[in-house]
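[Meeting: bench + compute handoff]

Bench side (C.D.) handed over the final construct sequence. Compute side (W.E.) agreed to return the predicted structure before the next meeting so the bench team could plan truncations. Sequence as handed over:
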Amino acid sequence: MKKIKTVKALNSFRDFLIQNTDPARTCIRICMTGCRAYGAEEVRDALKEEINIKGLEHKVEIRETGCHGFCAKAPVMVIDPQNIFYQQVASEDIPQIVSQTIIKGKVVERLVYNDAGNGEKIPYAKQIPFYKEQTKRILANCGKIDPTEISHYIIEDGYTAFCKAVTDMTPDQVIETVEKSKLRGRGGAGFPTGRKWRFVREAAGDLKYIVCNADEGDPGAFMDRAVLEGDPHSVLEGMLIAAYAIGARTGYIYCRAEYPIAVEHLKI
């Protein structure tokens, strides 16, 4: 009964969030993870100040997100609902962005993407070749939500899978679903995930643990870092599902100290 009440509460909260979200409201999504190295914090502060000066704080949301993926153009921001993409933004650009784009709806052409092949200026993120050819799965929420706001994750159907697992499925059914998916580990062995979960569930003993290895020992491997920084709830939800399936009551995330933003977001 408690599980059913939890699912109903989650669904009610999601409906409330959707009903109280104005699709026409301006939302400025600015990368605040990797882009920090190129001055994103200064850009954000200038943006907040200019928005307040113009009295737009109730009409504009400044959303601090995870990585947008286009790190070569940092700092980057996307202005919704128009989906306008600005690259290599500096704090000095903010007054023009606010006066021209936020207030008048005009594009600041000098800040949009310039195609290296034909010189075409492309103002909209979804039309940029780098994004156009992508279909995001694991990183779908990165650059879209504020990773420190659980409501942002829930409105994107966050924790729905966990609720389905614990209310509609037995642990064995969860494992069977993972086995049928043919999901494998990303290490060299590519070990089937479902088989690993079944081994642990069938192992003797009541005390079991789940460990998320987010160390990223391979040079230049930042895929775990991007998820932990930009969408940490997806990792927590995955661990909850796995814990339910294998019978674990305690979980650990092993994250290196060189990733302070990931650690900060995980703690939140």
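W.E. noted at the follow-up: Residues 2-19 form the longest helix (18 residues). C.D. will use this when planning the next construct.
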